[in-house]
């Protein structure tokens, strides 16, 4: 009669202890397949046993205690992963590498010097260099855009770069 009474009252502590001793490692392996670190797996399995122990009187069929434990391990593993993903989303984004104020000032000076040097070039040389290096066109595209030959683009570009180099070196 005590076996019947224990069956109707839910899983006994003795049955839960036996299940723990017999199936702890298999439940740990199950958690290891779902999670990536051993400490989290151990935590999940321990928490599963604690939860099933707390709800043992509600287990209608004590022979299904292992099934309840497995399902609890799976659910707790999902929750652990969900918390990790949420935690990663909430982490502050790393700041992009930014130039220091000094570097920014030097870049601005160089840019101003380059603009001034470009202004000192012949019109065609300036056009060829801007289209070629700023707009990133090929020599053929520059020739087509300006309506000049490919050889002229090469000549204007070469002479313009040489003049630009001289002016930039003189400015420093």
From TrEMBL:
The keyword Transcription regulation applies. Keywords: DNA-binding, Sigma factor, Transcription, Transcription regulation. It holds the Pfam family Sigma70_r2. It comes from Kitasatospora indigofera. Gene3D superfamilies: 1.10.1740.10, Winged helix-like DNA-binding domain superfamily/Winged helix DNA-binding domain (1.10.10.10). GO terms for biological process: DNA-templated transcription initiation. One of its GO terms (molecular function) is sigma factor activity. SUPFAM superfamilies: Sigma2 domain of RNA polymerase sigma factors, Sigma3 and sigma4 domains of RNA polymerase sigma factors. This is RNA polymerase sigma factor. Belongs to the sigma-70 factor family. ECF subfamily. Coiled coil: none annotated. Residues 112-164 form the RNA polymerase sigma factor 70 region 4 type domain. Residues 20-84 form the RNA polymerase sigma-70 region domain.
């Amino acid at each position: 009669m005590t076996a019947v009474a224990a069956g109707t009252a839910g899983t006994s502590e003795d049955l839960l202890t036996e299940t723990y001793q017999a199936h702890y490692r298999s439940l740990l392996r199950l958690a290891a397949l779902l999670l990536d670190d051993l400490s989290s797996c151990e935590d999940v399995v321990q928490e599963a046993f604690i939860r099933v122990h707390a709800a043992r009187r509600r287990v209608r069929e004590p022979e299904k205690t292992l099934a309840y434990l497995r399902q609890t391990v799976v659910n707790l593993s999902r929750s652990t992963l969900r918390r990790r993903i949420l935690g990663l989303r909430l982490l502050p984004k790393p700041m992009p590498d930014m130039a220091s104020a000094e570097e920014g000032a030097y870049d601005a000076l160089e840019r101003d010097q380059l603009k001034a040097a470009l202004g000192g070039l012949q019109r065609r040389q300036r056009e060829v260099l801007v289209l070629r290096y700023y707009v990133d066109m090929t020599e053929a595209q520059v020739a087509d855009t300006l309506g000049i030959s490919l050889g002229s683009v090469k000549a204007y570009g070469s002479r313009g770069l040489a003049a630009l180099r001289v002016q930039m070196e003189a400015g420093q």
